[in-house]
Each structure stands twice: as structure tokens, then as C-alpha cells.
Amino acid sequence: MHWIDFWNLSRPLVALRYGATAAAAGFIEGGSILSLALAGLSGLLFVAGVYAFDDIEDLPEDRINHPERPLPSGRLSVRAARTFGIICLILAVAVAAALHDRTGAMALTALSAFVVIPQAHRLTERHWIGRGVSVFTFIFSAFLLGSAAATGPLSPRLFLLGEAIGVLHLATRIIGDERDLEGDRDRLRTLPALSLAKARRFIRNVLALSAVLLPLPYFFGFKALYLLFSLPAALHILQQSITWKIDQAGGYPGHWLAAVVILGACLSR
């Protein structure tokens, strides 16, 4: 057991993206530098805790799909991962509470409960609707946490931006589920319970919905500069939706598209 195993368990790149998204959302809403730092730190800790419990729940599949990860490889025990996850989630809620906004802290507390309680966690993993809701909520919570870094309620433009990015991320996660299908067949999971034709049709529809949603925040307070960032990304995603085929010829919607749109939102707030 080594610190690097806990680092890998926490999915540092995902944690950094989530924390950066929360900080960017706070910046869009006009939060102070300290509040942006707290929102980013809270988000980073939250993701680290979420993935610790996610890996515990997904251990049977990961032995097939991702045997190199700390838990299936045996470098970390389930007990160590659970302890690490609990500590991270408690710290995430505590830091969110330091923002003096109940909404962000309560949102992370509720999401943490779903993650920690196995029965609740399985509801979000083993049902098609639960899977979609959990993925979308996970991303949208970053924008909600970011809004806690500023005074006032969540603005319509940030709400719409969070929706668009959340829908885009949902498509990428479902694509990832298809790639991990082999290891998921032995358990009641999302794609094994569906036909692949339905899953791929869902992917096309979600990509198209994201493309439609991305430019909308402009009409609720962003400057015209926002369209220079969001429209090319929306058109690229729409093209992927149209050309999506069984062999994944439509391409994989990368996280860089979301980063471009969020950057445009920050520059045109």
C-alpha cells in the first residue's frame, strides 16, 4: 500500500476537472478568490471520495475491465479504500460548509449518502434511468457547488450551462459503458439490460440534445463572445451525433469540448 495507490484511486484528472469546473462556475457568478479556491478544493475531495466507493462497488467488473487499478490488483484493501473515501467526503462537505452556503454543503451531503450506502449506490448503477440521473447530477453538482462560492441563487445562465455540460458528460459515460460491456455482463448493469441498438440510439439523441443546449446560455446574460466558443463545439457534437454508428465512427466527444465552452463562459461572463 502506497500513497500513489490512493492517488490513483481518487482519479486525479477527474477530480481536478470537477474542482476546476466548480471554481469556474464560482468565477462566472462573481465569487471571491478565496471562495473559488474553497469550491475547487471541496469538489476535488468530493470526487476522490466518490471514486473510492465507486471502485469498491465495481470491483467484480474491474477485475475484468481494469485489473490494473489499485483494488482489483490487490495493492489496496477494500477497508483502506472505504476509510479513504469517508475521510474525503467528510472533508468535502466541511469545506463546502465553509463557503457559508447551505445549498452546496447539503447537495454534497445528499450525494455522499447515495455513494456511501451500497443499496442507494446500486440504484444509480443498475438501472438505466438511475444511471442517467446519477451521471447528470454528478456534473451538475459542480455548477451548484460553484454557485455557492458567490452570493445569490443559481443564475439562469449557469443553470443552463450546467445542464448542457451535464448532458454532454452523460453521453461520454454511456459510451464508456459500452466499451466496458464485457466485464459488466455477469451483473445487472446498464447496457447488459438493454439492446445495444437502443443504447446507441440513446447516445445519438443525447449528443444532439447537448448540441442544442450549449448555445442557449448566451440568451441569459453571456456576451456574444460566448457564441464563438460554444457554437463550434455544438456543431462538432452535432456532427458526431449524425455520424454515430455501431463502429463508433462518429468519434468520442472529448472533455476538451466542455473545457472550451466553460472557458468561453468565463471570458464572457
From TrEMBL:
Membrane topology designation: Multi-pass membrane protein
Major site of localization recorded for this protein: membrane
Keyword terms, alphabetized: Membrane, Transmembrane, Transmembrane helix
Residue spans crossing the bilayer: 33-53, 80-99, 133-152, 158-176, 206-229, 249-267
Molecular functions per Gene Ontology: transferase activity, transferring alkyl or aryl (other than methyl) groups
Annotated protein name in UniProt: 4-hydroxybenzoate polyprenyltransferase
Source species, domain of life: Bacteria
Keyword Nucleus: no
Stored InterPro entries: Prenyltransferase_related, UbiA_prenyltransferase, UbiA_sf
One Gene Ontology CC term in the entry: membrane
Subcellular location per the Swiss-Prot or TrEMBL entry: Membrane
